[in-house]
């Protein structure tokens, strides 16, 4: 039934929910940053753990693009977006996700609705 709705594998985790769709990984607790920096806020750890657990499990996702913006920056928004995306990638690698399966993409402003923070796009799929 979930496949019929476009949802492949919901992965609920305490205080951090991740749902895989055909084109993205929906996160229901935004990855937060400390002020206008690329430092990831400690309260985002459960969400990063959940994403890493999903990416290291039995998943058809081969490459995941991590998009982040710097829309709240007073300086170069694209640079901050790129630094934030790289910070998320680094944290996922630290949690066991192979670096070759992740791509950091910085944005100047949100490219996924008005959701601040990060959004995860499935760049390449394979079979389980």
Describe this structure in words.
The protein is an alpha+beta fold and 128 residues long. The protein has one domain (3-125): 60s Ribosomal Protein L30, Chain: A (2-Layer Sandwich). Helix content is 23%, strand content 31%. The protein has two helices and six strands, in the order βββαβαββ. It has helices spanning 45-56, 77-94, and strands spanning 7-13, 16-21, 24-27, 61-69, 102-107, 118-125. The chain has a six-stranded mixed β-sheet. A hairpin with a 2-residue loop joins β2 (16-21) and β3 (24-27). α1 (45-56) crosses α2 (77-94). The longest helix has 18 residues, at 77-94. Mean pLDDT is 79; it is low at 1-15.
Oligomerization: single chain
At the fourth level of CATH, the homologous superfamily is OmpA-like domain
Number of domains: 1
Largest sheet: 6 strands, mixed
Radius of gyration: 14 Å
What is the terminal-to-terminal distance? 19 Å
Poorly predicted ranges: 1-15
How many β-strands, per DSSP?
6
Structural class: alpha+beta
CATH names the topology as 60s Ribosomal Protein L30, Chain: A
Encode the helix/strand succession as letters. Answer: EEEHEHEE
Major sheet: arrangement of strands: 1-2-3-6-4-5
What's the CATH architecture?
2-Layer Sandwich
Mean pLDDT: 79
Total helical segments:
2
Specify the overall morphology: globular
């Amino acid at each position: 039934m979930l496949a019929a709705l476009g949802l492949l594998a919901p992965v609920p985790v305490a205080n951090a929910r991740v749902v895989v769709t055909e084109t993205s990984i929906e996160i229901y607790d935004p990855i937060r940053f400390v002020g206008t920096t690329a430092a990831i806020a400690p309260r985002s750890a459960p969400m990063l753990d959940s994403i890493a657990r999903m990416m290291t499990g039995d998943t058809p996702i081969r490459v995941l693009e991590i998009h982040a913006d710097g829309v709240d920056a007073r300086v170069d928004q694209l640079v901050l977006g790129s630094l934030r995306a790289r910070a998320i990638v680094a944290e996922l690698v630290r949690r066991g996700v192979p670096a070759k399966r992740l791509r950091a993409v910085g944005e100047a402003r949100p490219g996924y609705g008005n959701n601040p923070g990060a959004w995860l796009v499935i760049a390449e799929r394979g079979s389980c």
